[in-house]
Amino acid sequence: MCVQCLHGRFKEEECSCLCDVGYGGAECAEKVQFPFHSCDVMIDGDCFMVSSDTDTYYGAKSQCQDRRGVLVPIHNQKVQDILAFYLSQLETSNEVTNTDFETRNFWIALTYKPLRDSFRWDTGEIPRFSSFAFGQPDNQGFGNCVELQASSAFNWNDQRCKTQNRYICLHAAKHIAQWEDGS
């Protein structure tokens, strides 16, 4: 039996919940406080947290939810450019502790849905903005999850979902004021 989502949306294909920002737990029932001190990058009031650990795509989604956020969607060039710049600075400052190839890449909230024959954000939206690297996507159904790829200046690449990557969690500004008000 699948879970019931109290403050979120049920994802039938995964039998899991995608929590609204500000809620966590398996059923999105736990109200949580916003961790201001944890933001690595702030863009237009939105908080982006870059993981220091690695996980599979679905593990990364769960980790973001546990940290009271969502795996990051990238809806415009501004966010793409700022995140790419920040991640490139991490590379040059040696803050990436594990130099394995895979850990230099970062999951984002975009997957290929074979039944719809298209890439979709975790919310189900069709991307209006895309930043795939030259020649990408190219895995023809084997790379159903999307990463920011270090070797292509953090442009997007389709990758196998079970690959171990770092990830970026988003805490959206429009929900922060609601949390502070207690609503």
TrEMBL record:
Q: Which Pfam families match?
A: Lectin_C
Q: Which domain of life is it from?
A: Eukaryota
Q: Which UniProt keywords apply?
A: Disulfide bond, Lectin
Family matches, as SMART domains = CLECT
Q: Cite the InterPro entries for this sequence.
A: C-type_lectin-like, C-type_lectin-like/link_sf, C-type_lectin/snaclec_domain, C-type_lectin_CS, CTDL_fold
Q: What PROSITE patterns does this protein's entry cite? A: C_TYPE_LECTIN_1, C_TYPE_LECTIN_2
Q: Which protein, by its recorded name, is this? A: C-type lectin domain family 18 member A
According to its UniProt entry, this protein's organism is: Liparis tanakae (Tanaka's snailfish)
